[in-house]
Design brief:
Number of helices: 3
Number of strands: 11
Shape: globular
Radius of gyration: 17 Å
Low-confidence stretches: 1-7, 15-27
Mean pLDDT: 84
Distance between the termini: 45 Å
Helix content: 10-25%
Strand order of the largest sheet: 6-5-4-9-10-11
Structural class: alpha+beta
Length: 201
């Protein structure tokens, strides 16, 4: 990866970033399932974003911009996270230089999510399934319940929807989703516990 210049925006379709080495390549997020991300995740938490900052890291040809997201952990389903969990993502903006990594989920201060965390600080995105590993918690305007929203801004109505890409077939299925009730956060938490139970038997 070339050293970045000011006043430039750099876009990476997807990046493999292991142990400090950055390599840009055009690819897509591998298909995944609910069972797979539960199994792969080292930690599964509910948390609220406390802060978000961008900074330079690395030296020489490995110098790049990362975004550090601090999450206040409010619930733990798997693993032993600290009370404040700092996640590192490749990409961000420092001054007038932006490194954009397509597919990496974005975070807003104050938002709440369920996160499936793996390989924090060892890969370009510390979430199992990349954007599939973040489910944003929002309030359903119709029922007032807390529901989960996927990367494509659709409410999660079934765990089988996790890992589904935004293809024509998925959009057609979306018409059926709209007729189903969104899963509540409590129901999704029960699904996580049931899935974890399968792996401990």
């Amino acid at each position: 990866m070339k050293r970045f210049l000011n006043r430039h925006r750099f876009t990476i379709l997807m990046a493999g970033w292991m142990m400090g080495t950055v390599a840009a390549r055009a690819t897509t997020v591998a298909p995944t399932t609910f069972s797979e991300i539960v199994s792969r995740a080292e930690m599964i938490v509910t948390g609220e974003v406390l802060s978000r900052r961008c900074e330079w890291t690395g030296t020489g040809s490995e110098r790049c911009i990362v975004t550090l997201v601090t999450v206040q952990v409010q619930g733990v389903y798997k693993g032993t996270p600290p009370a404040r969990l700092e996640l590192q993502f490749l990409g961000g903006t420092v001054g007038d230089t932006t490194l954009e990594v397509q597919g990496v989920p974005q975070f807003k201060i104050g938002e709440k999510s369920i996160l499936f965390v793996e390989k924090n600080r060892k890969t370009f995105c510390p979430l199992a399934g990349v954007y599939h590993g973040k489910l944003t918690i929002e309030r359903d305007p119709q029922t007032g319940r807390e529901i989960l929203v996927r990367h494509n801004r659709r409410a999660l109505t079934d765990i089988r929807e996790i890992g589904v890409e935004d293809s024509p077939a998925a959009r057609a299925a979306g018409a059926l989703e709209s007729a189903r009730q969104p899963l509540s956060v409590d129901e999704f938490a029960r699904q996580i516990q049931q899935e974890l139970g399968k792996h401990t038997r």
